[in-house]
Structure to design on (257 residues):
């Protein structure tokens, strides 16, 4: 079984009461089923919310730093790509989905998952690589490109919805999630070691939520396979989408407000 929530304060209070923590030095991502001691309940932080928060952190701070010996990940790099790309006709754009809505975020735009994952996409990474030779402002954009590739791969692995794409302990998505977890822990360790300023890292809430979700995804894959013979999981089903649709669409359609 699993328990899924976003990072709202009441949900994190529940985490605390159940002994759940995403901190590196005090980590726990599951609790015992209240009526069956032989079953685990794995905890997840809602994937769409995590990736929106990662995008929002970069948007608000304008820059992040993954490694002390690497360039900054900069929001301005996305703006530069947009300004270069919009001069091309539609059929010649390198990043055709990129729009001003991706770059100037109002309160509504900050809540849209599509805008978050498209800014941190393979298309954006390829656009950064392509335009680097055309713009001096993109000379040091390799870290931003790599960040997009990392986020894109992690989101895809956490968003599998088809049977033939299911995540299992022996496939590539599982390795991607392992690598992402290792990358996150190494990034935070550099902050702890004062090699990177805290402002250049994710918020504590986001980092802890991502760490719990990555670990729970990896562990539930092996747990279900070893205990119940379940060969794969559809990670795209482990989120709050169904609940949010119920409250935002189903209830109003029935006359409930």
């Amino acid at each position: 079984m699993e328990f899924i929530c976003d990072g709202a304060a009441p949900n994190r209070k529940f985490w605390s009461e159940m002994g759940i923590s995403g901190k590196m030095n005090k980590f726990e991502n599951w609790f015992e089923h209240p009526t069956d001691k032989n079953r685990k309940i794995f905890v997840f932080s809602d994937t769409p919310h995590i990736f929106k928060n990662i995008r929002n952190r970069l948007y608000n701070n304008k820059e992040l730093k993954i490694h002390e010996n690497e360039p900054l990940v900069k929001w301005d790099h996305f703006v530069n790509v947009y300004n270069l790309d919009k001069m091309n006709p539609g059929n010649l754009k390198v990043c055709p989905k990129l729009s001003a809505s991706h770059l100037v975020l109002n309160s509504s735009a900050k809540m849209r998952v599509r805008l978050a994952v498209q800014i941190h996409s393979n298309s954006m990474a390829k656009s950064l690589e392509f335009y680097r030779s055309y713009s001096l402002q993109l000379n040091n954009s390799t870290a931003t490109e790599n960040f997009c590739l990392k986020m894109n791969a992690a989101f895809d692995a956490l968003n599998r919805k088809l049977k033939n794409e299911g995540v299992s302990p022996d496939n590539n998505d599982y390795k991607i999630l392992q690598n992402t977890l290792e990358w996150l822990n190494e990034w935070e360790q550099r902050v702890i070691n004062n090699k990177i300023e805290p402002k250049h890292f994710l918020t504590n809430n986001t980092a802890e939520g991502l760490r719990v979700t990555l670990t729970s995804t990896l562990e539930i894959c092996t747990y279900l396979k070893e205990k119940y013979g379940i060969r794969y999981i559809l990670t795209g089903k482990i989120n709050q989408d169904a609940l949010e649709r119920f409250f935002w669409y189903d209830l109003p359609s029935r006359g409930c407000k």
